[in-house]
Specification:
By secondary structure, this protein is of the alpha/beta class. The chain has a single domain, classed as TIM Barrel, CATH 3.20.20. It is 37% helix and 16% strand. The strands form 2 sheets. The chain has an 8-stranded parallel β-barrel with strand order 1-2-3-4-7-8-9-13, surrounded by 7 helices. Strands 5-6 form a two-stranded antiparallel sheet. α1 runs parallel beside α11, α3 crosses α4 and α4 runs parallel beside α5.
Length: 387
């Protein structure tokens, strides 16, 4: 781990983010959908605004064909209601013509006064089936076009997917200076790793054992060094924290009440996702297969959630001290950003904020990287480190 190079070794804390459930997957029990938790404006905005009020520094607004809500539309509507929190808006590359996407991003960043971050997504668009290399090449071209618009007075681009010439980039200029919003990115295939190493700022990983996470981070560090760059590292993982370890374990078991004994139902849920056959999802399945009889891949890393969910398939489970110790181990490895979630999302958001969040020094990645143009803090909470 000594060879892992990160952009921000001087930062002692972490960006602690929550998850806005735009997807229809927020429930008290996996495999048993309750209309009270459906993905709609009322429920999802309530989660986001609660996270803002409780002191989370960012929140992921995901993008998927199944979400039921459009990411940028939702983010634009909720943005004026927020006070401190950043919004991590997922952008599915290829959906929108890049200059028009740039204009939408700039508009949202101005509404948020610089509190926008972007999650680059390279999955297949609904009804299409591009290969991995082609999808990441398309994302590379979108990023390069956006960056030209953010840093130049013109766009002059010729690629495999786009050929664009524009002599006016004022519509795409963001509120943030120094290159536009930070780009967060997740992906495990060689084309994905190469794209992040060349162009992105925060490499998001799904949960794995600490040993395997260190291997992933080392590989990314080596790739980024080839471009004379460094990236920061983030972890997207679920959370189950209770006053006692026994209560946390009971909550984990309770979450799977409708899945236990019905493996077919879990398979059906996982296979609904567009990325169900991706390499990253296969790594989550491999980790589950290596876990003990109770579903733990290592201490406090529980893989049971992945039995009924595609994508991020594990949770930190324990009492407040155990959860905090696990997070600090990740931070010692060089992880600087966390995106937590839980079931139901609103309840777990409050529990983590009550038991653990006040014990973590937190910051906003854009502020840490000097992306905002004004030196004045947005509020006392957003001024930097929160202890």
């Amino acid at each position: 781990m000594n060879n892992i190079k990160i952009r921000s070794p001087h930062l002692e804390g972490a960006e602690v983010a929550w998850f806005a459930p735009l997807c229809n997957g927020d429930d008290a029990f996996l495999g048993q959908h309750d209309v009270r938790y459906k993905s709609d404006w009322t429920n999802t905005s309530n989660v986001l605004l609660t996270a803002d009020r409780l002191g989370y520094r960012n929140i992921l607004c995901p993008s998927s064909y199944q979400v039921g809500q459009d990411t940028l539309t939702f983010a634009s509507a909720v943005a004026p209601l927020t006070s401190n929190i950043n919004i991590l808006a997922a952008i599915r590359c290829g959906e929108v013509h890049p200059p028009m996407l740039g204009r939408a991003i700039a508009t949202l960043d101005h509404i948020l006064k610089g509190r926008l971050t972007i999650n680059i997504i390279s999955s297949n668009l609904p009804g299409t089936n591009l290969g991995s290399a082609e999808r990441y090449q398309r994302s590379r071209e979108v990023i390069e076009i956006l960056k030209q618009g953010w840093t130049q007075d013109y766009i002059d681009f010729k690629g495999e997917f786009y050929k664009i010439q524009l002599d006016n980039t004022k519509p795409v200029k963001t509120y943030q200076q120094n290159g536009g919003p930070l780009l967060y990115f997740g992906g495990y295939s060689p084309p994905a790793v190469d794209l992040c190493a060349e162009h992105c700022d925060v490499y998001l990983m799904w949960p794995e054992t600490e040993e395997r996470l260190a291997e992933i981070m080392q590989n990314m560090s080596n790739k980024a060094a080839g471009y004379d760059r460094k990236v920061d590292f983030g972890l997207r993982i679920h959370m189950i924290v209770r006053e006692t370890e026994a209560a946390a374990l009971a909550a984990a078991r309770n979450l799977m009440y409708y899945i236990d004994g019905d493996a077919q139902k879990g398979d059906e849920i996982r296979n609904r996702a567009l990325d169900a056959k991706s390499y990253g999802v296969s790594r989550q399945a491999e980790m589950r297969n290596l876990s003990d009889d109770d579903g733990f891949a290592e201490a406090h890393l529980w893989t049971g959630i992945g039995r009924a969910r595609s994508g991020c398939g594990a949770a930190i489970v324990g009492n407040p001290d155990q959860v905090l110790a696990k997070i600090k181990r990740y931070m010692d490895m060089g992880i600087r950003a966390f995106i937590f979630s839980g079931y139901p999302h609103l309840d777990e958001c409050k529990l983590f904020a009550n038991y653990v969040l006040p014990k973590i020094k937190t910051f906003s990645m854009p502020e840490a990287q000097g992306r905002r143009p004004d030196s004045a803090p947005l509020s006392p909470l957003a001024a930097g480190v929160r202890s």
